[in-house]
């Protein structure tokens, strides 16, 4: 960053946008956090509330407005504006309204922050990311989606819980759509370097067999629905996940994260945005890793791509 202060702009001061702002302040991600929302009273109140806690976090400023100029010269822009997901509603059903918002908002933000890395978080994130790339003309490394970073965290949590180990010791990814057709990569998952497929249960723990894996996959896929049913929205975990991606960019970490962008060069995947493990650094979403897949995983990933391709076609993408 050439020694200059960093700036994170967040579009949308709803449950997700404010969770990202909150976690970014606590983790000291950027010197300035800016909130943009069409509701002036709401964004003013959120900034005031967050400002009252600045004594307790690393040095930062929090600003907000309903004017796009608040995003000027941002290093990273996180887009969270979108239609709210209702109980029982799939992520893909949100597409039309959210694409319309993206088309209305992003071009103006791009004018004041042309060099920013753009992270799309709003759902359905894969389709919206593809639309945003078309709307803005930005390259896939500069504009990408949060993808299955949260899904992979959910997977790791459930595997850790089942096996009786710390979640930080589980290494596994969910790929494909951030949604119902996503694919856990069981064949490459490990715990402490031990392949999950060879894992010997700890005393008092159950085997990680096919039944357990299917149960965990089902819980990962339906996690958001369960949370929305209970409290109306998911916000804390996605706030942390998005903040982790922003950190990887601003700190030039070369962190491998399953973010969503066009998988150029991957047969059957190069016309849709979906998630694969990708090196994320100051240049954005860079090299996509060629993770070994079992035949079932490969078939599932191609099916996930086809699901997204059909949805994109509905909107002329």
TrEMBL record:
Keyword Oxidoreductase: yes
Activity modulation notes: Allosterically activated by fructose 1,6-bisphosphate (FBP).
MF terms in GO: L-lactate dehydrogenase (NAD+) activity
Reaction(s) this enzyme catalyzes, per UniProt: (S)-lactate + NAD(+) = pyruvate + NADH + H(+)
Lactate/malate dehydrogenase C-terminal domain sequence ranges: 148-310
Assigned EC number: 1.1.1.27
Protein name in UniProt: L-lactate dehydrogenase
Gene source species: Gordonia alkanivorans CGMCC 6845
